[in-house]
From TrEMBL:
InterPro entries in the cross-refs: AB_hydrolase_fold
Keywords for this protein: Hydrolase
Lineage: Bacteria, Bacillati, Actinomycetota, Actinomycetes, Micrococcales
Gene Ontology molecular functions: hydrolase activity
Region (Disordered): 1-20
Protein name, as recorded: Dienelactone hydrolase
Amino acid sequence: MDHSSPPPTACTDPSLGRGAEPLLLRVRQDPPSPAAATGGATSAVEHLGQLSAAFAPYLRPEPPRLLEESAHGDWVRQRWSAEIFPGMPFGVYVLRPTGPGPSPTVLALHGHGASSASLAGVDDDGATAGAHGRLGVQLVEAGATVVIPDMVGLPGRRGAAERPGTQCQRLVNHLGLFGLSLSGARTAELNGLLGQLAELEVDPSAPLGVAGFSGGGQIGVHVALPHPQVRVLALSGYGSTFAQGILAIEHCPCNYTPGLARFGDLPEVLAAFTGPIIVEAGRADQLFPIGGVRATADALARLGRSEPGHRSGDPGAPPPVTLIEHDGGHEVDGPALTQHVISALKNISCE
């Protein structure tokens, strides 16, 4: 009996099993200059911007293509194929309300062991779909347009050389040899996708938020901090301090952003984001422990999350971080997180 997996199709896996091989080949053929790879950043925001900017020579966006569309009551789900790095198409779900009036936009990012399907309500990821709580569906039903891409190196875009459970290690190693990072590649690709919102039939002027689960939360931070268009940041299953999270518990190597801790622990990094921050955490989460998440929230309250000299009570200072706790483990709960995200984005639209 043949137990091999069926070949990918354009709708189920627009990457067609190509993985990141085209990017790795280009980097080997045309390595970045030492200055581009090492930078000289003086802040976390500048550093994160440099990690993604180092991939600028390898970008060549192509117009996205609509593959399929289905109606689900008062919203529709579209499947698109996008291409930011040449030769590396990938799948993007867009969930959009069908009701009248404008809607805010949320870039929703999946975690490890899953693909965009687990956020978009397409339950073909087995057990991994449950951890994401169909967050994209919750957001669109609350009135947001949701953009859900497959991230490079994770299920939905795995090349033949990238075995399950090892693909991130291989990409981290190969890119790191040239002074590049997998987190930078993921961020650069997502920045390119945000530049194509209009081509995805998404209003580029609508208030924009980023919501990420687990490793998607890490990349959500990388996208949100340097990107002036992102106004709201929501993290689920991510948010422990480095000291109590990724430095205390072994994680996938892509969770360790090169050089980031030179600018402080996670609270000091997040303090540079001046919009609302919503953090959801499970009290039984063994990967990003609740104690570390509470420490992040407490530190952010003390830091004020604004320019030097501001305090959280000063006029004009950003709103305090919102911490939402639930009784589950490493998983999205969703309803309260969705409510806070939509409320924050709607408040921005009224400014």
